[in-house]
Amino acid sequence: MPIQILVFLISPPPVTVIDYFNLYKNNSFLWLLSLDLLLIVDYVLMIPIFLSLYIKLRKNNESCITIGIIIGFIGIVTYFSSNTAFDMLYLSQQYNTITTTELQKSLLLAAGHSMLAIFQGTSFHISYILISIATLVILIILQRVKYLTNLLAIAEY
Question: Could you tell me the residue ranges of all domains in the chain?
Answer without folding.
Answer: 42-156
